[in-house]
Amino acid sequence: MMITETKDEIVKNNLEYTLFSWAKQGGLNPINASHAKGSYLYDREGKKYLDFSSQLMNVNIGHGDQRITKAVTRQMEAMSYVYPGMATEVRGALGEKIAAITPGNLTKSFFTLGGAEAVENAMKLARIYTGRHKIITHYRSYHGATYGAISAGGDPRKFPVDVQGVPNIVHVENPYAYRCPWNSSSPEECGERALAHLERVVQFENPEAIAAILFEGESGSSGCIKYPPMYLKKVRKLCNKYGILLIDDETMSGFGRTGKMFGIDHHDVTPDIMCMAKGLTSGYLPLGAMVVTDTIANYFNDKPMLLGLTYSAHPVSCAAALENIKIIEEEGLVERAAKMGEYIEQEVEKLKEKHPSIGDFRNTGLLGCIELVTNRKSKNPVTPWNAKPEDMQVTNQMAAKIRALGMFTFVRWNWIFIAPPLTVTKEEIDEGLAIISQAIAIADQQYS
């Protein structure tokens, strides 16, 4: 059927016949998206929005790259779908490529349709492989919204379903240096105290009951909390000491986002299991993967691996991923992310001089977050973590200002995220930071 709806009918049908994520359904005013190219998307009124968070930190190669369209079309002309028990050329080629770009002896991929499914299967596989049942994760983390993944994360959006959460998830404090739970004097000291805390929890929970420690390769939507330099290396040693698997969730931090191919590459650590999605296809089609070491893979040579999904290794999504990785490599986007990240850091330092409400800026490559406070000494946030609706006025005003000025980015509590496509230019960064500066002026009014 041909769709010839007016722009008003499009919004009306969206609101009347579909449900929107993470929102009360009344009073919504979604951007009526028409098309997108590079770092920009456009609504049906012709208004242009600078995409300063790569949508949900996933459109790494930018919008509208027709090389993906052509790769997907070629695959669909040959074959659109086969069940996951069949071999396809594109599945094998993508698996080989992932083995080549991931660290150490990560060698085999189980394909999913997103990050949450990758995490779900990583947790299940860890329990099957070790015969243990507990999973340790950070409080300030997000791993997806399916039951296992949302239980594993510490994001407060899980609270309404907490009572039905997956059992045997144990949370620990992050090494959040800006707000260190142990009142440390440096990121390194905070990291050491976080590690001591982690090992105490391991001992309290019985090391022989713990299947895996599940951490993000680099913190994302929970505030871009940077790991102290030695932290993940020592977590790896702790895992080895107690026979615990290390699961690295690279859903947001993978495929060049942090200025390395994967966030964990900044720490020279090889996990036992790596989860990926988002930047794997730059969001052009749904795809995720759980990648395991040869040691884990070999375990299942004579035992059934009881994991499965109807759309695992979907050939069309695999074709999009293979072309996407090729674009990232050929265009030098990993190196570009590192370079543009350095430029952003320089420019935000200038913003700090102008805006007293900027308490902290945490950034790695093109995954960054400005944290806003009412006083730099007290570090009191302009909007509290998990604020009630009546305490969200400043955040809502900043978000509205950013949208009105023609930008799309992630604004959450007292955080404004900066994570543009890896193709972003200095001119686009300047444009984005100028808009953010106008929004931060609202927070400055709360400063005392």
Question: Mind explaining what this structure looks like?
Answer:
The chain is α/β, with parallel strands linked by helices and about 450 residues long. The chain folds into 2 domains: about 5-60 and about 335-445, Alpha-Beta Complex (Aspartate Aminotransferase, domain 1), CATH 3.90.1150; about 65-330, Type I PLP-dependent aspartate aminotransferase-like (Major domain) (Aspartate Aminotransferase, domain 2, 3-Layer(aba) Sandwich). The chain contains 13 helices and 16 strands. The strands form 3 sheets. A 7-stranded mixed beta sheet has the order 4-10-9-8-7-5-6, sandwiched between helices. Strands 11, 12, 13, 15 and 16 form a 5-stranded antiparallel beta sheet that branches. Strands 1-2-3-14 form a 4-stranded mixed beta sheet. A hairpin with a 2-residue loop joins strand 15 (about 410) and strand 16. Helix 7 runs parallel beside helix 8 (about 230-240). The termini are far apart. The mean pLDDT is about 95.
